[in-house]
Amino acid sequence: MPLYNQGEADGESRTIVVKKLKEPDRYRVLLHNDDYTSMDFVINILCGVFHKPLEEATAIMLAVHQQGVGQCGIYTREVAEAKVSRVHREAHGAGFPLRCTMEKIH
Question: Considering the entire predicted model, what is its pTM?
Answer without folding.
Answer: 0.80
